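Notes from the 1:1 (GR / supervisor)

We went over the backlog. Supervisor wanted to see one worked example end to end before approving the batch request, so GR pasted a single chain during the call. The sequence is below; no edits were made to it. Supervisor asked that the structure be written out right there so they could see what the output format looks like.
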Amino acid sequence: MAQGEAPGGNRGNRDDQGDGGPSRGDDTRAQQGGRAPLAAIAESLQRERRRAGLSLAEVARRAGIAKSTLSQLESGAGNPSVETLWALSVTLDVPFAQLVEPPRPTVRVLRAGEGPAFTAERSDYVATLLASGPPHTRRDIYLVSVQPGAPRDSDPHTPGTVEHVVLSTGRALVGLTEDPVEIHPGDYISYPADVAHTFRALEPDTVAVLVSEHP
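Structure output shown during the call:
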């Protein structure tokens, strides 16, 4: 679908003439039970306009609609046509559906034993990636399973990196290589990971959740 083309139709006439009165595009208004989903649209418009750092007047100007029309929509009023909403989605650089549908919570389940696993070269240490950080975050989450023996010694990571560890089972020495701390089930430790650090299991089948927080 080309930019600027409304789903299921052409650009047509938007209901943005004057103060947002009726136009010939009225027969293509967004429908949800006979009405546009106004609350979702209002929330989306406000959120995306703030994200873009644009004033209400500037968004209206770029979309070619009246400022009063946009003000109405952001307050949850009016009955916008598809053409008006499509012009706003193009202006704000968001998919049309994202503008008219409320955000849905994302539930992700990773069963035990699933996920990419990585082993250490010189220690019995397995790190399973549970979740990598999406674009707007800077953290990765791992489940680590460690056996007693040689410690997992890590070289310094990117400056500003911090690691967080919560021990689930077993015992371990965790933290800075020069001064690790013994932790037990339920204990939490954080430490700068831009210096040498270590993880050494003191009991068989030691398991922990590790969160790597990037700068």
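Supervisor's comment: The chain has a mean pLDDT of 81.
Batch request approved.
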